[in-house]
Amino acid sequence: MKFMIVGSGGREHAIAETATRSGYEVYTASDARNPGLLAMSKELHVVDILDGAAVAKVAHNVQPDVIFIGSEESLFAGVSDTLRKEGFNVIGASQKTAEIEKSKGFMRKLMEKYGMHGRLRFKTFSNINEAIRYIDEYPGSVAIKPTRQAGGKGVKVIADIQAYLKEEKSHAKKRHVSDIVEQKLSKDLEDPILIEERVEGVEYTLQCFTDGTHIVPLKMVQDHPHAFVEDIGPETGGMGSIAGTGNVLPFLTKRDYDTSFDIVKKVVQAIKKETGEPYFGVLSGQFMLTEKWGPTVIEFYSRLGDPETVNVMPQLQNFDEIVNGMMNGNVANIDAKFEEKANVVKVVAPKGYPNERGMGKGHEVAIDFDKVAQSGSHIYFGSMYEENGTYYTGGSRALEVYASADTVEEASQKVEQAISHIKSDWKLFHRKDIGTKALMQKRQDQADLARDIFRYREARGLIGKTIDWIPGIGKIET
């Protein structure tokens, strides 16, 4: 069977490898000559993956049995709709239903309308002055974001803890609101600014396949979005991720998993009610375990995550069964089956990422694949290209290095060995702390604290409630 992928990064490389292992003949429509996709594909067609007509032309040439859209921007551009109109079997959300990722405002309003567990207080704005006035009046800490999905760019979380920095923090909030508008991070949405309440806790992702009615959940994965060790530095598209031996992360519980899955199910139902279309494709919930709700929604993806895909695809044992179920329009009674090993993915990026990507572009990288394999690791290509047998950085996340083992810590050590065999005369960096014993213990402590407070609040009927104290007004409960 012919399997066509739309996309160009490490996520698509991992999907292509899994499809090949499952017996499919892989073809790719990509906007870059990704070395991993070149190796996995019988044919790779370089094309504008945001142009539905151009992608459809490739599809008519290939005549695939199924098309898997990896890129969220392709979904936002309606490529899946164009391909379906041309008669192809497509795994990918429609343009209308992909709004759940494209617009955080749409997502927040949907959750509020249907009174869903895990929602946050929020407000969207098109006017800078109104947003600034709201910030001045808001009684607590906030997260200020572009409403549009922007690959981790433009998110700023500011905690009002130190009273002596109140004026400085107020200035920072107002400046960031202006930056979102000036940088046009949500230029194709009516309300570009999203301000929501700040929450703390442990983040994680639950990725699912759905036919619009039935849902196949995958393993929980934890991404690490901050650029540097100890979760500091700018937000990125993800600097690495971990998964446990089973479907639940080591520091989370079966109840956390079940509650998160229940939220995804309710969102699938709500999307159909709002848009009139069934959600068909991949829906991934980005959650945080908080004291307010337990599992709390940060955002949704209308596709598999990156790098989270690399945590699940190499271990997924019945990908063909899921694909066939999706092609038949029914994934009822299908359970995802995984190799029972923990795994770790660490991203290697060039200096300049994420804020000065041009600086990190065009630098030669040498990889000793034999020694990487000897370490028990495997490399997936992200933003890289090949010329005359030499690899060059594309400016964004270059490589995703994967290893599995009996424990997360052992897998992390394997990945570190592999990364030592990746060389460049340009500075490359990665997060050495991902999957280490120290960081895993920190995650456990964070999760235990959030869970303990949540259970205390639950016993007193305070789930989802926020109590603020405003000087001169008093207690406000929402």
Question: TL;DR of this structure?
Answer:
With about 475 residues, this protein is of the alpha+beta class.
Low-confidence stretches: 161-166
Q: Supply the helix-strand structural class.
A: alpha+beta
Gyration radius, rounded: 22 Å
Q: What is the beta-strand fraction?
A: 25-35%
Provide the domain count.
3
Give me the CATH superfamily of the largest domain: ATP-grasp fold, B domain
Determine the mean pLDDT.
Answer: 91
Named CATH architecture of the largest domain: 2-Layer Sandwich
Largest sheet: 9 strands, antiparallel
**Outline:** globular
Q: Provide a count of the helices.
A: 15
General description of the model:
The chain has 478 residues and is of the alpha+beta class. It has three domains: 94 residues, Rossmann fold (3-Layer(aba) Sandwich), CATH 3.40.50.20; 77 residues, ATP-grasp fold, A domain (Dna Ligase, domain 1, 2-Layer Sandwich), CATH 3.30.1490.20; 228 residues, D-amino Acid Aminotransferase, Chain A, domain 1 (2-Layer Sandwich), CATH 3.30.470. It contains 15 helices and 26 strands. Strands 10, 11, 14, 15, 16, 17, 19, 22 and 24 form a nine-stranded antiparallel sheet that branches. It has a five-stranded parallel sheet with strand order 3-2-1-4-5, sandwiched between helices. It has a four-stranded antiparallel sheet with strand order 6-9-7-8, with helices on both faces. Strand 25 and strand 26 form a beta hairpin. Helix 3 packs across helix 5 and helix 8 packs antiparallel against helix 9. It is globular and about 60 Å long. The chain starts with a strand and ends with a strand.
